């Protein structure tokens, strides 16, 4: 059998299997793909797969995963900050949404998350800026108040 006929046979078998097992795809495969993408389902196993398939250094990948886990709450706080201030949030959330759909339809590889990480870093920067402004305001108020009291004496 030549390659074109063999490929057509494999395609037909795959489509037949998928059509008979679509509930499993919806209940098991898609959530696992999305979970792997976002580092919440079997993250160490995914890092090992990245090492095997893409040749990444495992220790550096673990470091990147830990850094990513610290980035997520900051990005969430940044999204809340933008939402509360009435600024548009959709341009930054579009990338994570697109990446999630791509992972759900294909596979949940860490490299697919890269475009979304740009938005996550920007959202984290918004939260860090809000925190810095909050604490800078408190410090500025105390410093000026103390200086004014000293000058008035």
Shape: elongated
Q: How many domains?
A: 1
Helix and strand succession?
Answer: HHHHHH
Mean of pLDDT = 86
Compute the separation of the termini in Å: 99 Å
**Largest sheet properties:** none
What is the number of E strands?
0
Rg computed from alpha carbons, rounded to a whole number of angstroms: 24 Å
- Assembly type of the chains comes to single chain
Number of helices: 6
Q: DSSP strand (E) fraction?
A: under 5%
Helix content: over 70%
What does this entry show, briefly?
The protein has one domain (3-152).
Could you characterize what this model shows?
84% of the residues lie in helices and 0% in strands. With 153 residues, the protein is mainly alpha-helical. The protein has one domain. It is elongated. Keywords: Membrane, Transmembrane, Transmembrane helix.
List the SSEs and their pairings.
Blueprint: H1 3-20, H2 22-37, H3 43-54, H4 58-85, H5 90-105, H6 114-152
Keywords: Membrane, Transmembrane, Transmembrane helix
Transmembrane segments: 60-82, 89-108
């Amino acid at each position: 059998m030549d390659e074109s006929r063999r490929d057509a046979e494999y395609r037909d078998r795959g489509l037949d299997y998928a059509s008979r097992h679509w509930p499993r795809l919806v209940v098991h495969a898609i959530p696992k793909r999305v979970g792997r993408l976002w580092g919440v389902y079997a993250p160490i196993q995914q890092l090992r797969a990245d090492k095997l398939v893409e040749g990444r250094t495992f220790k550096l990948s673990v470091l990147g995963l830990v850094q990513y886990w610290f980035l997520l709450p900051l990005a969430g706080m940044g999204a809340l900050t933008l939402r509360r201030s009435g600024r548009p949030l959709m341009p930054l959330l579009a990338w994570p949404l697109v990446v999630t759909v791509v992972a759900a339809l294909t596979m949940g590889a860490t490299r697919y998350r890269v475009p979304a990480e740009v938005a996550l870093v920007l959202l984290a920067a918004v939260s860090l800026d809000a925190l810095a402004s909050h604490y800078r305001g408190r410090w500025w108020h105390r410093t000026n108040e103390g200086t004014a009291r000293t000058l008035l004496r």
